Amino acid sequence: MEQKCFKKFDLPFELEQLSSTQGGIYFFSVRFPTDYELGITTRVDSETVLKNLAGRLNNYARAYAYSELRGVLHDGKAEHMRTCLEISGQLEVCTKPSELLESLLAVSKPPIPLAEITRVLRFAFSADKPLYIGICFDQSFYDRISQHVNGNTGLLGFLKECQMSIVDVSVNCLPLDVADRKHLRCYEKLTQSIFRPAFSLS
Amino acid sequence: MAILPQSKQQQVFDKQLDGVFGHFKTKQSFALNYLLTSIKTNRLEWLETASDVLDIRTINFAEIVQRDIDYVRVQSEIIDKYLQKGAGRVVFFPPLMVTLFGIDGGKPIDNYTTVEPTIETGPGGDKYLVRYDKSRFEFELPLTKGDETLHSIQHDGQTRYYYHYAATLRYNSEKVRLVVLDGQHRLTALKKLIEKGGQDVISEIDLPLCVFFAPGAVKAGGTQESLLKDMRELFVTINKEAKEVSGHFIWLLKDKSLAAMCVRQLGDAWKERGGDFSYLHQLEWNQRDASKARQAQKAYSITTVSIIAEALENHIFTEKKGYTYTLLNLGEVQEALQANQNAPIASEINEARFDLDQAEILQQQIAKYVTPSLDILFTGPSVYKVVRQAFEKALSLLDKEVKDGITGYAQFRSDVLGKFRSANQLDQEKVQDAEEEFTNKLKANEELGEVSFYRRNVFHQALIRAWAEVYNLVRAYGLSPQSVATALVTGLEPVCFNPKKKFFHPYDAYYSQRVFFKVEKIIVNEKSKTSLVWLLMANLANRKALDEFMKALSAPAEVASAVQKKLKETGLKAAGEYLKIFRERQLDWLEAEWKFAELTDADQEYLSAREEATDEARIKEFREKIEEIVGKRVTKAKDVLANMLEVAPADIAPGAAGPAANGNSVEP
């Protein structure tokens, strides 16, 4: 079955559903956990669920913040005379999602159901903001994503730095049949320039 | 109230042992007192095994495992090869570890009611006496001065010194039993040797003993200490390290293994189900012979601990696919699992990778999700209910024979069947006969014969893998592994578990040949195992099966249609994947053994003429002919499978005709 439109795969559970004949452009994004996975629907006490959720949100925030502090600083002169400085830094998070979550729950009476909170968050994460954008030209999606999953790229290290792992991400794949690598590379750069994903090495 | 003279009081203690007294306690542990002593072989009846004393209904699976006696080992290794062959060499048994087991009304006590330490003065000097429950047992230590011994006790705020090597234990045999916790095989060997007239061989033995008891388990003392808990703990730990293990025991005694945790929990769950002759009889767990551990040996077994554990180890708790993470729902405990930051994170945990600190949480997750699922998978299907019913029927016939007083039947019921073992040469002939008859009645049960395929290792691993695979497909919908297990066994009823459908019949199921059947012989290899997973999942293509699956799943309405669509597609794809394996296996077989295949004369002639060809054109013709024959067979297999599943052959996803849907090397 050939994949025609873009499709999302949860990793590593759906790795084998990736095409091993097609390549194209792909990006990783955070997979927001199900209520079941968070323990909301499985009789786990609410304190544990909250701790679990808060910890995850901090990790996701850290992963997305990673990208915002990499870029170029330049003055206002014309482009050919402009002084550019490539800068990067570590974000000192002023307000952690866990703290906001805590204050949200502290002020609300009666207490907000956790399932409502996760519904809102799931809605926000459904935007699938890229964490990493990549291409596979002479490689299939299956082969390329397997390299990421098996730790042959820097992805796992990056996730680990944010206390995340492969189960916390999904991969979105768009098959593209293009004649040369440059063509695909242009799409990669174009999309990276918009989203500035945390872990793309462009 | 009259006061009894001291001499009368002491008469309740009818047994006495003298020896060296000792005390064992770490800073945090409960205390243990012990007496190092010995016993002549004519007093062996003073000692009993846990098997004699522990009522099966009052103990858990871990304890049953430990009390299991390997009678073959007793006879061949200890009696025949050791005790009977002492000429020209020394033989010795290390001390048996024996506990003082308190009994009241036939039941073990959990703590002592009273402990009374006193000092008695007599003509032989002062004696320190501690009496437990007035008439249960007492310890006596002769006292002396501090400069004569280093051993002391505190009594009434004073330090008193005693001769540790002259201690005496007296006990009331109606209220105390001496139970061997370590050395039960040595004790059984000695008893068996005496039974068979070999008393003279061992008459000069002073059998060394270490008798211990917990002095602090006193009801009135406000302690949490429990004699039973202490004994269980010692029993399991002492025996765990005792001997090299094999067969099922590898799994039962393995500490750091998720698969082992699962089978132990399943054993515990099945022990609690079904009354005196519980479902544990349907789980073989005490086979020591490794070659017999991977197949159910008894006519009334459903499966074995090794089959389940190996399927879990090799296919479920692996690094692949995230099964461990999803089936144990490690997401809900991921913070707790990270209590130690150096421990593997939730998604990295698998059979080979977790910290012992994480074991308790993992056990809880197994108990919450996997054990109930395994219970459903192996007791829910009608084919397994047949096995249990046949066992219960045979049991009621046995009860009738016991009632009729037929010799050997009562002993077979209590000593063989009741102790989860098979009769052996050490049992009386009548007992062996009773077992044979019990087994023959089961073997004659036609219904049991019809479900024999479902009791094979190759099927069980496929069932477990299919459950994990289906769960993986629907995991995002917030469903539990148990609900998927229930849905799967229900969904497999119309076709797979319906013996009338003959879904696994070597002839009616044409597609089975050379994949998991070689004529009537079951093929066991990785390909056949994988093929059966696809075949089970192919059931989802059947409308009735899928309807039953969905009904049992009770998925929320908003996701039900998406789940159903996904499963239907999966069923058709699985059928295609199965036929792909059929094609590969047929090609392999025909290329090597076409002469033995049922081919037309013309095909035989065509292939014979090209068999030893060296020119490329004829080699190609040979190959193309084989492909053509295989192609026809695949078409036939596809038609038969489609007919079984009640789908159109054209609906079966590609796979048979070419690569898998995505071309990957797919492993369910």
Oligomer: heterodimer
Gross geometry of chain B: elongated
Percent in strands of chain B? 5-15%
**CA-CA gap between termini of chain A:** 32 Å
Low-confidence stretches of chain A: none
The proportion of residues forming helix of chain B, as a percent range, comes to 40-55%
What is the arithmetic mean of pLDDT of chain A?
A: 89
By helix and strand content of chain A, what is the structural category? Answer: alpha+beta
**Spatial strand arrangement across the major sheet of chain A:** 1-6-2-5
Q: For the residues shown, what is the average pLDDT of chain B? A: 88
Main pleated-sheet profile of chain B? 13 strands, mixed
The strand count of chain B comes to 17
Helical/strand content category of chain B: alpha+beta
Strand content of chain A: 15-25%
Uncertain parts of chain B: 656-665
Q: What is the count of β-strands of chain A?
A: 6
| Helical run tally of chain A | 7
Major sheet attributes of chain A: 4 strands, antiparallel
Structural shape of chain A: globular
Distinct helical segment count of chain B: 25
Based on CA atoms alone, the radius of gyration of chain B comes out at 32 Å
Give the SSE layout:
The complex is a heterodimer of chains A (202) and B (668).
Chain A: E1 7-10, E2 24-30, H1 35-38, H2 46-68, E3 70-74, E4 84-88, H3 97-107, H4 114-125, E5 130-136, H5 141-149, H6 155-161, E6 169-175, H7 181-195
Helix pairs in contact in A: 2-3
Chain B: H1 6-10, E1 15-24, E2 32-40, E3 47-49, H2 50-53, H3 61-67, H4 71-80, E4 96-104, E5 107-108, E6 115-122, E7 125-132, E8 137-144, E9 152-155, E10 158-162, E11 167-171, E12 176-182, H5 184-195, H6 199-202, E13 206-213, H7 227-240, H8 249-252, H9 258-271, E14 283-284, H10 290-293, E15 303-304, H11 305-316, H12 323-327, H13 334-337, H14 359-379, H15 382-403, H16 409-417, H17 429-443, H18 446-450, H19 457-474, H20 481-491, E16 517-518, E17 521-522, H21 526-538, H22 543-553, H23 557-593, H24 601-611, H25 616-645
Parallel strand pairs in B: 3-12, 4-13, 14-15
Antiparallel strand pairs in B: 1-2, 1-11, 2-13, 4-5, 4-12, 6-7, 7-8, 8-10, 8-11, 9-10, 16-17
